[in-house]
């Protein structure tokens, strides 16, 4: 019954045109509660059709984290993320954790997980411990040697890897990465 009502509500949106931000937010929450990916995708299409860009990331984060990734629709989540005009640390963390939680590290690869950490900082956000743990989960599923070979001589990435292992309490791996660094700086 709830899914049928949700479908009818989305149908009504299509007949009315552009909706308000509050209306979209309510519809997103209904989609999440109903766990209805089909209607969430229709809602996303409606927003794109009317060039609606939320001023805050809440709407996209709920579609991205709570529904698209929950339903295993990572390509939709990634597309939504790539087209977000407003990202926050929650957006970044949800993308990173989605790859790790869905076991799709092969699609992300270790060097990309670390590049996400770099992009978080380039976008002006300070990664939180959750970000580091998600990157570590993604990276730890691959061989450390493969990870180290993918980093080249980028001291920033080597420092990030070493820091992630240290923050997560794996001092032996942190020390191994520190010892492998060809160019150390004050941060190292």
UniProtKB/TrEMBL annotation:
UniProt-listed Gene3D superfamilies: Tetratricopeptide repeat domain
Entry annotated with the keyword Transcription regulation: no
Q: Which UniProt keywords apply?
A: Repeat
In residue terms, where are the PPR repeats? 88-127, 154-188
Name the domain of life this protein comes from: Eukaryota
Among Pfam families, the record links this protein to:
PPR (PF01535)
InterPro entries (UniProt xref): PPR_rpt, TPR-like_helical_dom_sf
Q: Does the keyword S-adenosyl-L-methionine apply?
A: no
Protein's UniProt name: Pentatricopeptide repeat-containing protein
Q: Which organism is it from?
A: Arachis hypogaea (Peanut)
């Amino acid at each position: 019954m709830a899914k049928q009502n949700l479908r009818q509500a989305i149908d009504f949106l299509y007949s009315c045109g552009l909706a308000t931000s509050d209306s979209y937010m309510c519809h997103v929450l209904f989609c999440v509660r109903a766990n209805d990916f089909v209607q969430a995708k229709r809602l996303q299409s409606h927003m794109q059709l009317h060039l609606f860009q939320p001023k805050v990331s809440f709407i996209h984060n709920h579609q991205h984290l709570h529904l698209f990734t929950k339903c295993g629709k990572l390509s939709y989540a990634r597309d939504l993320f790539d087209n977000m005009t407003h990202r926050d640390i929650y957006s970044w963390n949800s993308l990173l954790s989605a790859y790790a939680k869905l076991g799709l590290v092969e699609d992300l690869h270790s060097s990309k997980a670390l590049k996400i950490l770099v992009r978080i900082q380039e976008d002006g956000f300070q990664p939180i411990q959750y970000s580091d743990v998600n990157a570590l989960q993604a990276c730890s599923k691959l061989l450390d040697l493969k990870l180290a070979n993918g980093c080249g001589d980028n001291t920033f990435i080597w420092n990030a890897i070493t820091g992630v292992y240290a923050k997560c309490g794996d001092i032996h791996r942190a020390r191994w990465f520190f010892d492998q660094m060809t160019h150390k700086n004050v941060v190292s």
